[in-house]
Amino acid sequence: MFGRHPDTRALSELSKVQLLDTTLRDGEQAPGVSMSADEKAHIARGLDDAGIDVIEAGSAPTGQQERETIARVADLDLDATVTSFTRGVKRDIDQAMGCGVDGINLVVPASDRHVREKVATSWAENRQQTVELVEYATDHDLWVEVIGEDGSRADPDYLEDLLGAAIDAGADRICYADTVGHATPDRTLAYVSRLAELGPVSTHTHDDLGLAVTNVLVSLAAGADMVHGTIGGIGERAGNVALEEVAIALAHGYGIETMALEQVYELAQTVAAATGIDLPPNKAVVGENAFTHESGIHTDGTLKDDAMYEPYPPETVGRQRRLALGKHAGRSGVRAALEEHDVEVDDDELEAVFQRVKQLGERDKRVTDADLLAIAEEATGETHERRVELVELTTVAGVGTPTATVVISVDGDERDPVSATGTGPVDAAISAVEEALAGHAAAAALDSYHVDAITGGTDAVVTVEVTMSRGDRSVTVAQSDSDITRASVEAMLYAIDRLGVPDDAVPADD
Ligand SMILES: CC(C)C(=O)C(=O)O
């Protein structure tokens, strides 16, 4: 066993760690992000369902629209404590109260830079003002957390004096803020252990040095009992600590339950869709590759024992394991992938498929299910009869509502044109395809949809990759075209075709 620093406590002995989610406030401060009231309400419900303790719903001083959104979240009757960010001014607290929140995250300057250069006040005045604001907020029955902004660069004696005064004035808790994410673990330990002597302490870390999770764990060992973070780690600059990473580290490493981890992936996808910030493929817990194995050695090991190359089962966080094919594929992985699609091959055929998969992978290409099935047909001589095809696609987009019309053929039989509207031409075209297949397409779920530009410029060729599933079968297809709508529809129809078209699901024309 490794030794433990004398100023820390063993994390496994902690009885409770609370999570404060600031996706709707600090997360939204990521460049270019703005979420609608509907999106924020939806995310807040998801966070509450997942058992998050405190939801910082926004920043009341930002403006009227923001206040309406905070009020909407406060009105959802959630189990979580709903708060607003406020600066160290009385008007902000009044505005937060006007939104009907349970509490405030009162942010006051703590470092010399912030006290003297940003707010242009003195240490003593800043302290006095903080005390008065805490008294004002608690007199109005608000839950109050006082955050010393830029605390990790503050004079530790002043930070202790400021936040100690806040606790004495009645604040429910204080927060150590590594605002610019510059603290090392030992600095975090030194600061948080001093603050923990004063009262309940939260920790708010940023990832500028890639140390956000480490600093959270050190903060907890030093005496903090609440963690601020965002889903997916979005936030200013390099982002805040990712709450799902904290939650899995605590659960897996120390047996501490903080939130319903199996809901975290869906939440992360909801946040990604609302913010437009894609989840990086290699992101822990929620990234596309987090439970995907490609190399022959890992695939073979995983087929023998699920846990061979995984720290915990993907289902823990609402995910599924995937075996991918590419340059590093091995024979057993190729055979397993073929078996998933009910394709039987003899040893010579397997060898041919394996060699072709590797060749394709070496050309820097990810080998999709559709590629694998086409390769297997070449090797076995058994060809697949395509049943569903796109005959025509027209889209109208511009100032009005985007509309798409599709004509498909089933078993060579051309169907009537079907039109649908959507949020954009791709969405409209996908709805038209679903309608054209009269619910059959809908019964096949669109699990993922990715677009990559493979050339630059306005005439760029894009590759659309979709994964569709029905029951426990799923198929991934990639299609490239200079027209993104066409690539999307072709990919989707091909996936549906590969999933199989039950005869009774094919609509007959009147
Ligand atoms: C103002 C606070 C809480 C903040 O977002 C930070 O310090 O990063």
From TrEMBL:
The lineage of its organism: Archaea, Methanobacteriati, Methanobacteriota, Stenosarchaea group, Halobacteria. Residues 17-265 form the Pyruvate carboxyltransferase domain. The keyword Membrane does not apply. Keywords: Amino-acid biosynthesis, Branched-chain amino acid biosynthesis, Transferase. This is 2-isopropylmalate synthase. InterPro entries: 2-isopropylmalate_synth_dimer, AIPM/Hcit_synth_CS, Aldolase_TIM, LeuA/HCS_post-cat, LeuA_allosteric_dom_sf, PYR_CT. Belongs to the alpha-IPM synthase/homocitrate synthase family. GO terms for molecular function: 2-isopropylmalate synthase activity. PANTHER family: (R)-CITRAMALATE SYNTHASE CIMA, HOMOCITRATE SYNTHASE. PROSITE patterns: AIPM_HOMOCIT_SYNTH_1, PYR_CT. GO terms for biological process: L-leucine biosynthetic process. The keyword S-adenosyl-L-methionine does not apply.
